[in-house]
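pinging the channel bc i need a second pair of eyes. not urgent but kinda urgent?? the chain im working w is below, pasted from the shared doc
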Amino acid sequence: MATTKAAVSVEDYLAMSFDGPAPELIDGELVDRGEAMYPHAKAQSRISAIFGRNRQAAALFPAVAMRLQLGEDRIRIADVAVFRGAEPTELIPSQPPFLVVEVVSRDDRYVDILSKLSEYREWGVEHIWLVDPWLRRLSVFDGDLHTVPSLRIPDAGVAIPPERLFD
């Protein structure tokens, strides 16, 4: 006998509470996210702090573990989302941020990460970064993943070398 999963609506998802990290909602199904261990949390908080310091000068508004509504039944949770120009007014933004940063968790699979990064790109996120604290690697995603020596957005005055994230 086959079993089927009941689709979870966005409204039901938002009314739920979770033990541990909140899952994402993908096509009506709850999908667990990787457990954030200390190297992940440290990189995530350092990135947020860097953007927080530049907030006034460049009108950048960072948010950690930000829920983003990419579609009717799709909510992703960005490790760091940075909005430019104005803070979002929606509880769960339905318009793409300027930048999304994903930080690799120890149990993440790269195929799943690349799928998520592709969704962000298709949604219209201008800058997409991947920070891997386990391999101490910085990457940018533009449809393909490219390892870079530092994370940069020149027109926003942002340059983050690896030593600011990993020590």
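so The two ends are 53 Å apart (CA to CA). and The longest helix spans residues 38-53. — does that match what u expected or am i reading it wrong
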